[in-house]
Design brief:
Elements (H helix, E strand, L loop, with lengths): L3 E2 L39 H4 L6 E6 L5 H9 L3 E7 L2 H14 L4 E5 L2 H12 L4 E8 L17 H10 L5 E6 L2 H12 L5 E4 L13 H8 L5 E7 L5
Parallel strand pairs: 2-3, 2-5, 3-4, 5-6
Antiparallel strand pairs: 1-8, 6-8, 7-8
Length: 234
């Protein structure tokens, strides 16, 4: 298995306009808690994003979404949807998006292990999901907490069923154990995904995340790979 390591050279994203006084929230929340199992309200997407046929990028676990805000200014013709389980961060991000006047980005409060089908199904009548990113998800390193990870076999199978053929799913983390785990979960379903072993060492979105820049600046490693949907289903 090939581990894609970033070059040690730091390429920091500097955009002062995206800095904000952040509220304090818990770093991790239990996605298995009953409060995160309830149905969520979904907007009418054609009133949220520019008119179709704009392509859409789905980011799973976007935190404060400052990274997505930077991407949305770089790619005004692409719609960006971030999903975050910690609701205070969603409120903060949406307030900032409104202040900046960004029209091609939306942040949604949801649990992707519960709401994936509902979210994607509500999008596809209008928008084509062109790519998906799972960058630096919660590692949940304790053995008894592994079941809380967003990437699991059921999630990966559902994602393949819902996405168009040849949709790239970008994985990235600075935790080697988590990287190997995620890769194995995707590789366990070879009928659903093919792995791109020729992906470059750079961030697939063309811009490093804040965590990525910090890790590289401290001399750490970034592990990344890309899987493409085959169009088959289980």
């Amino acid at each position: 298995m090939l581990l894609r390591r970033c070059l040690k050279g730091s390429r920091r994203a500097t955009a002062a306009s995206f800095s904000t006084k952040s509220i304090r929230v818990r770093q991790h929340v239990n996605p298995l808690s009953q409060r995160y199992q309830e149905p969520i309200a979904l907007p009418e997407w054609t009133t949220v994003f520019p008119p179709p046929p704009a392509q859409l990028h789905l980011d799973i676990g976007c935190a404060r979404a400052q990274y997505l805000m930077k991407l949305s200014t770089m790619r005004p013709d692409t719609c960006f949807l971030g999903v975050e389980i910690r609701q205070p961060l969603v409120v903060e991000a949406m307030e900032r998006i409104g202040t900046l006047g960004l029209s091609n980005i939306h942040i949604l409060h949801g649990n992707m292990n519960v709401h994936l089908d509902a979210i994607v199904s509500s999008l596809v009548p209008h928008y084509t999901i062109g790519s998906v990113s799972i960058f630096h998800p919660d590692p949940w390193m304790k053995k008894r907490h592994v079941k809380r990870r967003v990437v699991n076999h059921a999630f990966v199978a559902d994602l393949a069923r819902l996405l168009p053929t040849d949709t790239p799913v970008f994985l990235q983390t600075d935790v080697l154990d988590l990287f190997e785990y995620m890769v194995q979960v995707f590789q366990d379903q070879p009928d659903l995904y093919t792995q791109d072993d020729t992906a470059s060492g750079a961030n697939a979105m063309g811009l490093p995340t804040d965590r990525e820049s910090a890790v590289l600046g401290d001399g750490g490693d970034i592990y990344r790979t890309t899987f493409y949907t085959t169009g088959r289903t289980v």
